[in-house]
Amino acid sequence: MALSMNISHSLFFIFLGLFSTHAQQPNILFIMADDHAAHAIGAYGGRLASLNPSPHLDKLAEEGVLMHNAFCTNSICTPSRATLITGQYSHVNGVTTLRGEIESERQHLARLMKDAGYQTAMIGKWHLKAEPAAFDYYAVLPGQGSYFNPILRVSTEKASWPENTKRFAGYDCKHVSDVVTQISLDWLKNRKQDQPFFLMHHFKAPHDNFENAERYDFLYENTDIPEPISLWHQPGFGSSTTRQGAGSGTSVSSRNDRRNMGHHMFVDQNMREPEYTRTAYQRYLKKYLRTVKGIDDNLGLLFDYLKENDLWDNTIIVYTSDQGFMLGEHDLIDKRWMYEESLRQPFIVRYPRWFKAGSSSSAIVNNVDYAPTLLDMAGISPPDYMQGRSFLPILKGEEVQGWKTASYYRYWMHLAHHDNPAHYGIRTEEFKLIFFYGLPLDAAGAVKKATKPSWELYDLKSDPQEMTNVYHDPDYQSIIVDLKKQLLDLKEALGDIDEKYPALMEVRKKYWDQ
Fold first, then answer.
1. Half-sphere exposure of 508 (CA within 13 A, CB side)
2. What is the pLDDT of residue 441?
3. Which of 14, 47, 52, 92 is 20–30 Å from 449 (CA)?
4. Who contacts 451 (Cβ-Cβ below 8 Å, separation ≥6)?
5. How many whole angstroms separate alpha carbon 293 and alpha carbon 496?
6. Among candidates 458, 480, 475, 35, which has minimal Cα distance to 234?
7. Would you state the pLDDT for residue 171?
8. Shortest CA distance to 409 belongs to which of 318, 455, 476, 342?
């Protein structure tokens, strides 16, 4: 009898311990948009802030922490998402281009959260091809998915991946941002109440072609969207690789006659410059910002649910994007570049128990750090195979010794889709050094055509808009030597060494010191 009571007491305290652990673990709502540039969020300031594109996000930043120097390591959808789910750089997780995938056993972030007692869900844009089977529940778009009446692959459907599809349609033509939000709300309402939740809520918007819900059709109709100076005037920008011809990128203007925003926005091809550029830009930005407003309004619905169900202050809310986006800066569109608007990610987090309202940080972090940080938030020690480092102490306002002073970047998908040459580089607090090596190497989907290598250096303190490449300026030569050493040291530390590629080593021998 005594033994039976001891066992009962033991089981009771084990249960109590598990309950206590779950009670201490905060819920985590991780929200990711697609191609949502930081400078299209009011809280980050800039030329678009006056248009009030994101009031709910701005309020989130007022009540939380805003990171100013959060960067992606490869500015393109699939590799960025692979880095998020693995905590590894592209060359380590193997997803260097849009053709990569992450199978369930390598969906480390979801698997570790689940092992720690979280109920997990992935809802919205997945874009990693393999089934997101490491999650308890998923409802994900196949590939890019559709903006209207979308089909999603749902884990509760009878068919197996990838045939387990369900169309979310209606007479009023349902928009994907609304659908993803409704699925997340339904999941939150029906989740297990005795477990903390980890919900990855991923919008498709504002990925091109920027199709907004009908209710936003006339938003900004009579507004003149401010233009970036570099859309028109940038005499010192770029290099021999990026100024003209192959490798110069797709444009807003008619500069790139193969693909430009005038084509996307159905601008009359007989229209002359500068009217062509102005028309394309205005249509482009209005459509983009309308999809952003759809995201922000849906965030309001999610936030209202948390508030109404006593979850608002017990849920860590993170908002980010898979990368930035060029909104006409340097007469460029899309992402992929190491230029600031493409490189920088928004990163806003709210959790009043840990984070001081209205705070911000200029510490350099990148998306390889996101998984370790989310795990740390859940009380999980990040594993050694993750290359990132938790910046939770930085978010809490604590001093961190030995934090990174530079971020490494590499774009592999040479000349594919938007005419961006392959390149890598280093971004420090003051400088950005980019080496356009211009080779397809072994990157799946890259165009098998080399471009002339070149270097670009930007002084971010004196030239934050990157208007002038100072690589050949004599005053910067000692800085270049130091940055090149930092770049090679960082590449070696991360395991992305050029010696694996004989063709790249040949380019380096010829162009490294030019």
1. 13
2. 98
3. 92
4. 241, 246, 247, 414, 415, 421, 436, 438
5. 39
6. 458
7. 84
8. 342
